[in-house]
Design goal:
By secondary structure, the protein is an alpha+beta fold. It is 42% helix and 20% strand.
Length: 550
């Protein structure tokens, strides 16, 4: 029954269009007319007895060898979708769970954060009150065996380790742990449970009046997480915010709209979409946001995409706050997900995003040219765009004006109000070697082992600062460690890269405390030129406000 229903509904359309789009469009019509021709072919499918539908029916019913039409569709559908825009995609059932998991806000697992930098599963942190915490797994433990199978030193990739540790909630997994100062292995049995995935990666006070929030993605829980984080910061006296969207590739549109609403005044346009028939859907702020009067600087970069660009564009076009960093990715196409009965899905582009001033976020593309689309980022690097603003040019026809007269441009991505280049000033040959050979990170794991008791006692950033202040020999100790690992000291390089290495040492070590990424971002801040520029901008805004009020 399932096979017949799938054939009658799905295959006549997809196989016919695939054959037509792949062969006729590619070989005969050419790329330039593919969209028009494809639409024409889709209209043909409405005719019950057209030639293409009959051909597929004949293949299934008369072809000399029996064929699995389901199997054939798995090959044809991706081929078809590849002829469309770069963001329409077919997702086989086998990949749906992995693709959706980061956006759903939870997964089934054992509740540990781990790393495999040394070909051993090292537990960095244990999620409080999670399955592993309940049976006594501790930060610093090495997972040597999973269900009595040796995994340490076996060169098993991280994805395979994840598969062994995860599983349906309620199932059990046996772990054999190596623990510092304990002879032999410690065996525990963990009952898998629901593990939350945080999209707010960090939220802390840089100083009493200034908060920092890092949002890694727009998942189903992002607005609730963000709202909770800023409420806690405001309770501590924060009235200025650095909102970090760097590396955030997007996610659910509704979450971006909800978060943008927090900053905007009633009636201000957040975003609108437009479909092929020019029908628009507009989203406006409702005036109930709790951050309407908070000074804000939003950080973006070349990996900020989709929902990140919608949020940044909404604030920029409404003259709300300052956007700083580098030009964002440029994904302004709306996908609608159609799920099939076998667990697979089609994400089909059905509309385009526009910012409040009418800018298209989407960068240019050629239908079916996925390789060329991916090369655009390499072109940015080759054109030196990440290092100098002089290499970035926009056509005057793409110019838009915000309500307060600021000039902004469409045509691909969000160009920040303040451009911040990648800073390579302190990158030396010695630094590249200790980072590239993973020596710096391995040292931080070794340090965490030797100072486990002290790190476990740390509860606040001030306590972590005090711990580091009492260890002035850390950098020298690291240099000696690197020498033992085969990287000879280069004193001039070490002096030049000192601040960069000290910040990274403290950041990675701090991750081994209950502070997790708050400790990482707080300690990396002194060498993060984008965050430091954001602090300067907010300080300038404060002085300007004081002057106007005096």
């Amino acid at each position: 029954m399932y096979k017949n229903s799938k054939f009658s509904i799905l295959l006549p359309l997809l196989l016919s269009v695939a054959l037509a789009a792949g062969m006729l469009l590619g070989l005969y019509f050419g790329r330039s007319g593919s969209e028009t021709r494809l639409r024409g072919l889709l209209r043909q499918m409405a005719v019950p007895d057209n030639k293409l539908t009959r051909t597929i029916s004949l293949i299934e019913n008369k072809y000399v060898d029996s064929l699995s039409m389901d199997s054939l569709s798995e090959h044809i559908i991706p081929y078809l979708v590849k002829e469309l825009d770069p963001h329409s995609v077919y997702l086989p059932a086998s990949t749906m769970s992995r693709v959706n998991e980061p956006l759903e806000g939870e997964f089934d697992g054992i509740g540990v954060i781990f790393n495999m930098a040394t070909d051993t599963v090292v537990v960095l942190n244990v999620i409080p009150h999670g399955p592993s915490a309940d049976v006594g797994v501790k930060a610093g433990d090495r997972i040597m065996k999973i269900n009595d199978t040796l995994v340490a030193g076996q060169k098993i990739d991280q994805e395979r380790i994840v598969k062994r540790l995860r599983g349906p909630r309620g199932t059990k997994v046996k772990l054999s742990l190596q623990r510092h100062d304990i002879q032999g292995l410690v065996d525990v049995e963990v009952t898998r449970g629901v593990i939350p995935i945080k999209s707010v990666e960090a939220a802390y006070c840089i100083r009493p009046d200034l908060g920092y929030v890092k949002l890694g993605q727009f998942a189903r829980t992002s607005f609730v997480e963000f709202h909770t984080a800023v409420a806690e910061l405001k309770a501590k006296g924060v009235d200025k915010l650095i909102f970090d969207l760097r590396g955030n590739s997007g996610g659910f549109l509704d979450q971006a709209i909800l978060i943008a609403n927090e900053f905007l005044h009633k009636g201000q346009l957040i975003v609108y979409t437009e479909d092929r028939n020019h029908h628009q859907m507009r989203e406006f702020a409702n005036g109930e946001g709790v951050l309407q009067d908070m000074d804000v600087v939003v950080l973006i970069d070349e990996n900020s995409a989709s929902s990140s660009e919608i949020l940044a564009g909404a604030l920029q076009d409404n003259d709300r706050g300052t956007i700083i960093g580098r030009r964002s990715f440029g994904k302004g196409l709306v996908q609608t997900q159609v799920e099939f009965g076998d667990g697979s899905a089609l994400r089909l582009t059905t509309a385009r995003y526009f910012t409040p001033t009418g800018r298209s976020i989407q960068k240019p593309y050629t239908m079916g040219d996925e390789e060329g689309y991916e090369m655009e980022m390499y072109d940015r690097i080759r054109n030196n765009e990440l290092y100098t603003i002089d290499s970035i040019h926009f056509a005057d026809s793409l110019k838009k004006i915000t309500p307060k007269g600021k000039v902004v441009y469409g045509g691909g991505g969000i160009m920040p109000d303040v451009f911040i280049p990648i800073d390579t000033t302190d990158v030396t040959r010695y630094y590249i070697e200790v980072i590239g050979r993973n020596i710096l990170y391995r040292y931080t794991m070794d340090y965490a082992d030797r100072h486990r008791a002290q790190l476990d006692s740390v509860k606040t950033l001030d306590e972590l600062d005090a711990l580091f202040a009492g260890d002035e020999d850390m950098l020298d100790d690291f240099v000696r460690y690197a020498a033992r690992k085969g990287v000879a000291p280069r004193r001039r390089d070490i002096e030049r890269s000192k601040a960069l290495m000290e910040a990274q040492l403290k950041a990675f070590i701090g991750r081994n405390t209950v502070l997790e990424d708050n400790a990482f971002f707080a300690n990396i801040r002194p060498v993060d030129n984008v965050v430091m520029r954001a602090v300067e901008i907010l300080n300038t805004e404060e002085k300007k406000d004081d002057k106007e009020n005096s």
